[in-house]
Design goal:
The chain has about 750 residues and is mostly beta strands. It contains seven helices and 42 strands. It has a 22-stranded antiparallel β-barrel. It has a five-stranded mixed sheet with strand order 1-6-7-4-5. A hairpin with a 6-residue loop joins strand 11 and strand 12. The longest helix has 11 residues. The two termini are about 20 Å apart. The relative contact order is 0.12.
Length: about 750
């Protein structure tokens, strides 16, 4: 059962491309993180971005509708609460994702969901659905795990969840608590000695707790207050220094940073759900408030030497052994949401939902890049080149470091207010043939208050405030035919609209990029809203008494005013542009078969052909991006799995294997474009094999597992400090990990 259309339906009867995974399936596949979940779901791209320091920052896209700027293209929900935030160039300015422990299910909705889920669902939505409080009897679920990573540290977890009725059919609760430690697998080496000085630096700890109370004061009223807390601590960056590592031996090293690049991210999410049932319809109210704080630290020594001294040796030059350049980033997110829906409850030919939505989100972001020896760093390059040293930073940039410390300093406040009304209806015009129509109207306001200062902005302080307003309409139309109880065919057309934003100043060292591309890096720029239409046909079919099922869909997307982040090739600063128009064609296919008793085979695959359909020109009219250039998304992705169950001494044993694959886009880089860094290749192909064997003893499941069995180590999201910098950094898969899991469910 899923609620992808805001009412409960059997998954096979939902005329949408939806992937739903319940808690039992998450355990079977060994899914522990959102990264794991998305890797097992073709057409979805998710992962850490090395371009954002490699310390937990991430981006997510569905069917190639991707962006790392402004409002996300994928809505992220805990129950009915959207928790996504504006993303940007600061390392802490990114989404939070709930820890995958005590969940009823996860629903991945592919394609625009703007009608029912709002403007952050341009490409789709991911919904993490928590269990309801227990109003009858008692339930308990527990899981523990221990594992070791090849040439890495020990990982372990323990969690327990459960609930019970306090007054049968009237009052009950559900509570959970969970902790996980992930051991590191990257070693720090000395910048001078090149010997290991600290092992397994990129370990992390996560903790979550939840409490929900269910109360039915009358037969037709249900009240559910809940509180969810989550905390993530990353000890150091997961960036791999490619030149210092030996991937073939799983010897991953970080030899460019001498200090930890840590991150903490915690949030509280109180929510209150009220359901009042009437004759033939119900009223549902969801009220929530999220408060979140994230902190990130980075070591900028090698970055500053590369930028200001044209120095690329990992060992610091004489006199700079104790230099300390760093960035501290602090981000706060506070958001209130209120949604009220009315929807029918009878099972007739006409089904409907209408509602209103309000949200107010305030994100503050403070970013400061410091270097107490900026003048010395610059003069090192000047003297090496035979020139006279500068007497002050002012002689170079016109100002001194802000507060005597910061090369670049930024303080931003983002205020988003949304007011929406929406409606969607399904009508069975003739038996088994249903037409769907929906519409959402949104009044959105975005305010940015931005302060920047420092030599890279050539200013002691610039205050700017900008305001944008948008009033988009997001309609949806659909037609579905339930040929019989085992065969559903459907066609949908839906629109997605994403509000505009602001590109913050990139700074004076991006002058050459600005000239080549055609923008002023010293000022803020308005970013226009983007929108798309997706046209989709699909079917859900079951044969042979349920032994074979096929879920297939094909789609075409027209995307206009595409807004996304670009890493400027010369200065390596991230900024945002509208990139013109794009088209995306593709299909999703999932097949599940039970050829013999005890054996289940599944295969799911996705093909995405995403490319720009317009030329992009600079202010001088020169083409800086050709028509036909691909978007950065894998053309093919797939997940294959097999599970065989068999009796073992009166219990049930099982063997399971999961294989995932993403392909490489072999389109040659356009090295003549000023948007392209010729030293960074397109994302390589990647694959991973996981194996698990276990036995179920009534309510206890004990299994032995191995992830990344073949020790795959693709270098994903490669970066460097400047175009001339040979020190490439990247993120990669966790090496082979072997462990033991035990779960208890009653």
């Amino acid at each position: 059962m899923v609620t992808a259309t805001r009412r409960e339906q059997t998954l096979s009867k939902v005329p949408l491309s939806v992937v739903a995974t319940d808690q039992a399936a998450l355990d079977k596949q060994g899914i522990r993180t959102t990264d794991d979940l998305m890797r097992f779901t073709p057409s979805i791209t998710f992962g850490q971005s090395s371009g954002f320091y490699g310390t937990g920052q991430s981006n997510i896209s569905i069917r190639g509708v991707q962006s790392t700027s402004g409002i996300p293209t994928v809505g992220v929900y805990v129950d009915d609460t959207p928790i996504q935030t504006r993303t940007g160039v600061s390392p802490s300015l990114t989404n939070a994702y709930p820890i995958l422990f005590d969940l009823d299910r996860v629903e991945v909705l592919r394609g625009p969901q703007g009608t029912l889920f709002g403007t952050a669902s341009l490409g789709g939505a991911v919904r993490f659905i928590t269990p309801d409080p227990v109003l009858n009897g008692a339930k308990i679920y527990g899981r523990t795990e221990v594992a070791t990573t090849y040439r890495g540290g020990l990982s372990y977890e323990a969690g327990v969840a459960g609930g019970a009725a306090l007054v049968d059919d009237t009052l009950g609760f559900r509570a959970s608590v969970y902790h996980r430690h992930d051991g590191g697998y990257i070693d720090r080496i000395g910048r001078v000695s090149r010997e290991v000085v600290e092992k397994d630096i990129n370990s992390s700890n996560s903790f979550s707790a939840r409490f929900a109370l269910g109360w039915k004061p009358t037969e037709n009223i249900t009240l559910t207050p809940s509180l969810f807390y989550q905390e993530l601590k990353i000890d150091d960056s997961s960036l791999v220094d490619i030149n210092a590592s030996n991937a073939g031996r799983n010897d991953f090293r970080n030899g460019l940073f001498s200090r930890p690049e840590s991150r903490t991210d915690r949030f509280w999410l109180p929510a209150f759900k009220a359901v009042v049932e009437f004759d033939g319809f119900s009223v549902i109210s969801n009220t929530s408030y999220i408060t979140r704080k994230a902190r990130t630290a980075s070591d900028d020594d090698t970055l500053n030497l590369a930028i200001f001294a044209d120095y690329y040796d990992p060992a610091p030059p004489p006199g700079f052994e104790e230099n300390f350049a760093f960035t501290n980033n602090r981000t706060s997110q506070k958001g209130f949401t209120q949604e009220i829906r009315l929807q029918n409850t009878d099972d007739g030919p006409f089904n409907w939902v209408v509602g209103g939505f309000f949200s107010r989100s305030v994100v503050t972001d403070n970013f400061g890049g410091a270097n107490t020896r900026l003048l010395d760093t610059i003069n090192y390059a000047v003297v090496q080149g035979g020139g006279p040293p500068f007497g002050s930073v002012t002689d170079i940039f016109g100002v001194e470091p802000y507060r005597g410390l910061f090369v670049v300093y930024q303080d931003s406040r983002y205020l988003d207010i949304q007011k929406s009304v929406f409606a969607q209806a399904d009508y069975e015009i003739v038996p088994r043939l249903t037409v769907t129509a929906g519409l959402r109207y949104t009044d959105s306001t975005f305010n940015l208050d931005n302060f920047v200062a420092g030599p890279l902005y050539a200013s002691d302080g610039i205050d700017v405030s900008l305001k944008t307003k948008n009033k988009p309409l997001t309609p949806k139309f659909g037609l579905s035919f339930q040929a019989d109880r085992n065969n559903l065919f459907y066609a949908n057309a839906s629109k997605g609209v994403r509000g505009g934003g602001v590109a913050e100043a990139a700074g004076i060292r991006c002058i050459n990029d600005g000239i080549a591309i055609g923008f002023d890096p010293m000022v803020l720029r308005r970013i226009k809203p983007d929108s798309l239409w997706t046209y989709e046909v699909g079917s859900k079919n079951t044969w042979a008494g349920g032994r074979l099922s096929i879920d297939a869909s094909a789609y075409h997307t027209d995307w206009n005013n595409l807004q996304s982040t670009l890493t400027l090739p010369e200065c390596q600063v991230h900024t945002v542009f509208n990139f013109g128009s794009a088209k995306i064609d593709g299909f999703d296919l999932a097949v599940s078969a039970r050829p013999v008793d005890g054996l289940t085979l599944t295969a799911s695959a996705s093909y995405i052909n995403a490319r720009y359909t317009s030329q992009l020109k600079n202010a001088g009219g020169e083409v800086i991006r050709r028509k036909g250039e691909p978007l950065d998304v894998a053309p093919w992705s797939m997940h294959l799995s097999g599970q065989y169950e068999f009796p073992v001494a009166g219990n049930e044993g099982y063997l399971r294997g999961d294989f995932t694959y993403s392909s490489h886009d072999d389109t040659p880089l356009d090295v003549t474009s000023p948007l392209v860094d010729p030293g960074i290749p397109r994302t390589p192909s990647s694959s991973q094999l996981d194996l698990r064997a276990g036995v179920r003893f009534d309510q206890i499941d004990v299994s032995l597992f191995a992830t990344n069995v073949l020790n795959a180590h693709p270098f994903l999201g490669q970066i460097h400090s400047t175009l001339a910098d040979p020190n490439l950094r990247s993120v990669t898969f966790r090496p082979r990990t072997i462990g033991l899991t035990a779960t208890f469910r009653r």
